[in-house]
Amino acid sequence: MSIKIKAGPFKKRMTAELKNDFMRKAVSGAQDGLGARRNLATEQLGEWEKWREAGQEIRQHTVNNLAHYLEQFSEQVTKSGGHVYFAKDDQEATRYIQEVVQKKNAKKIVKAKSMVTEEIGLNAALESIGCEVVETDLGEFILQVDDHDPPSHIVVPALHKKKEQIRDVFVKKLGYTKSADPDELAKHARYTLREKFLQADVGITGCNFGVAESGTICLVTNEGNARLVTTIPKTQITVMGMERLVPTFEDLDVMVSLLTRAAVGQRITSYVTLLTGPKKQQEVDGPEELHVVIVDNGRSKILGTDFQEILQCIRCGACLNVCPVYRHIGGHAYGSIYPGPVGAVLTPLLDGYEDHKDLPYASTLCGACTDVCPVKIPLHGLLLKHRQVIVETEGKAPISERLMMKAFGFGASTNSVYTGGSKIAAVSLKMLLKNKQMISNGPGLLKEWTNSRDFPTPKQSRFRDWMKDHEEAKSHE
Amino acid sequence: MNKLERKKVEIPISTVYRELETHSLKKVFIESAKLIRAEIFETTPADLINALNLIVEGTHANEILSSIQDAPKKLENWLQQHTTKWDPTLGNKNIQTAEQAKFGITYCDQALAESGTVVLLNENNKGRSVSLLPEIHIVLILANTIVPRLQESMRKLHERIKEGKGVPSCINYITGPSNSADIESYLVVGVHGPLRTIYVIIEEEA
Predict the structure, then answer these.
(1) How many beta-carbon contacts under 8 Å exist across A and B?
(2) Which CATH number describes the domain made up of B22-202?
(3) pLDDT band at A476; cut points 50, 70, 90
(4) In this structure, what DSSP letter does residue A405 have?
(5) pLDDT at residue A296 greater than cutoff 80
(6) A289-295 and A438-439 as β-strands: parallel, antiparallel, unpaired?
(7) pLDDT exceeding 70 applies to what percent of chain B?
(8) A272 contacts in B (CB within 8 Å)?
(9) Mean pLDDT score, A204-219
(10) Taking burial as the number of CB atoms within 10 A of a residue's CB, which of A89, A92, A185, B109 is the most buried?
């Protein structure tokens, strides 16, 4: 798998996903559940806005001084006995990892969940040299067993799957004989994977944060699989996006406090693991050899551009959990391993506009993503910027997109414009109204929604007027 | 390497500090630990052995793995008699023992009141597997090691680095048993790590 997960035009992918009722119910359920938990957790912490500001400050400072902190981090990893490799792109990264694995004569590999390894297509690269690569995160494991079904959420990758589907796959592929009860399914995965952990030669992880002052790798998980991956195999390979650093442990406190609350509404996850170097000589468990592969793969190109703020991202998925577009089309329709608002911003930057030109339009520019982002990335502003770039380089946007810009996008982009903009929106969408209440045959992207449901119109009249009409209508009944 | 000028980031104040104005660290820690499905035993140094006997009752010493250094004499005797000790001279055999053990007993170096977390600095051969592979993880927590939140723990690590001391190869922040919500957002408790986590909080009688 690389960054692309589904071929074909965006519209076609989206139309297909809109018909998947289970997926849509699962996504909206997860959004509501995770959203409520996030709100509770941020409220309990107190001063959430100040925490976001602190997070933004730390990440901006780090990204602004990325070369400095990368140098410090790699110096510290080396000092603690680890090896560091800078990979310019996916090819360099996978080639280096293949070499490490071959030098160890390793055949069995266990992996903890990592988006960047998906991005560089690591599993396929390792399978091509005859290795067995086992995903050990429960969600990733389910997808892998199901013939490499792609992830649809960056935190909950198998969100789109029904438990009955999972049971059927386990029956077919793993000789499972029990029910679709999640507890029983998880237990089966536990025992199947325990064996894999005990036999593995190499463990591969991603990296939530690298701490520059100490060369420490921080892994944030709930299942404990990342701990197993870094406890039993003799060789550990950690793959890290080049921007995933924090300067000090004091900064790490702020980032972990933000991440676990924004991602899953927990005060902290079951396991936050800090790994510094390989195991010490006298220690029994932990890897004897540690390789940290720092991946650029298009990231440094973003530095210094209008899109630099996307590098602040800590992959919490909070923006997916509030996005009205993600809610309806799910993760797969984006055609990228990074779906949702963050994916719509990041994917064209990493993989070019050519195949992902539609993604910046997969947004209502409502700004919910920006409001919820724990490091204050102006996500919907960046989506708008993408549209500007597309319009500038292409000369024009497709007609429906132009209408979207006018009718909806422009108006929702900032608060001050919104007030005035909603009037324009009301006018330009007017012609599409079936009964002045709902839009039933919208243009462009809107069409894909309205084919499945009616879309509420922007407010056409003031509430007071509506109330008056409403009262009148009632008195006629 | 050049030192980088940097404005100090002001860390916001968690509500846990307000709570601590009226409640003890231990009380706040216990409330948080209940939320994350840890099982809680409160005991005193004098009564610790009774508490442990109660928890592991009927389990053979082969199935109880422990890794506790510098234990007080009474506890050390109990560990000798009732548990298999993590023994670096045996190398990988320890991992096999951990894999088959029902209980793994460790102590924590710190605990965090805000989140009900125990902090295990895996240095001096504490063993990463003891808190990970057995079915049930028992953590001994001295009440006076509880701090308000992650901040105090991370600050200590930052100070270690500044003093040139370095940090252990592995530090575990553990908060209750392992879990997953990967299947239809349903919470499964006990995935790859322990199925149950037992906190034994030890405090001198007032």
Answers:
(1) 234
(2) 3.40.50.10420
(3) low
(4) I
(5) yes
(6) unpaired
(7) 99
(8) 117, 172-173, 175
(9) 98
(10) A185
